[in-house]
Model the fold of this input.
Amino acid sequence: MKGESMTTFDACEQAYKNGYDEGYAAALADAGVHFVEGCSCTSNVKVFGLEDSIRGAKFPMATDISVLTTELTNGIKALAQSGRGEGHDQWLTGAIVQFDFTFSNKGWVEAERYHFFDFVSSQSTMHRITKFELDNAYNEYVDEESIQIMKRKVREYNELVEANAPEEDKMRKYLEVLYNNPAGFRLTARMTTNYRQLKTIYAQRKNHRLPEWREFCSWLETLPHSELITGKDAG
Done:
């Protein structure tokens, strides 16, 4: 199928089966799929639908949509960079971004406020908190004493399980593990969002106290046509 014309679906299927090798990566690019390098908190990044959304943004003023192109004109850029809440940037919802996102418990609490910053799936403390390698699970701001407390409580829970202790005793200890887990515990989730939501996140979090938010916002500046998110024109 290499060298032949592919639909987006065909390109994605073939790229998946062949490990995203060079030829199929090029086919995906032709189909409007962008691979983007991640940062310490993002990986496995793909952007979909950006060019088609640029074209779609021209629909309101068109009488013949067959002549529309995917060129990002100054007028379309101005719509994207309009004030949040004005509605002119609606077309940015069609530019989809998906990535693996590693954040602290504290950061996740804040991220969950965004309505269109959606979870595909995530790691779970509820299911697996006693199975993590705790020495590597926390960010640099968690006190070593707190980590040792967690390790002790996990050990005590596992001892209860091995001793076939009453369910009530095991549940109480498990809840102690959950509720004593520091806010610097890091979990990874697969996320799906869009340029319009990221525009809001960037404006609200680029100067945030949490360094992980600042890093995430700096990374947003590397996305294709990031000026649509940041309002900063290239150069």
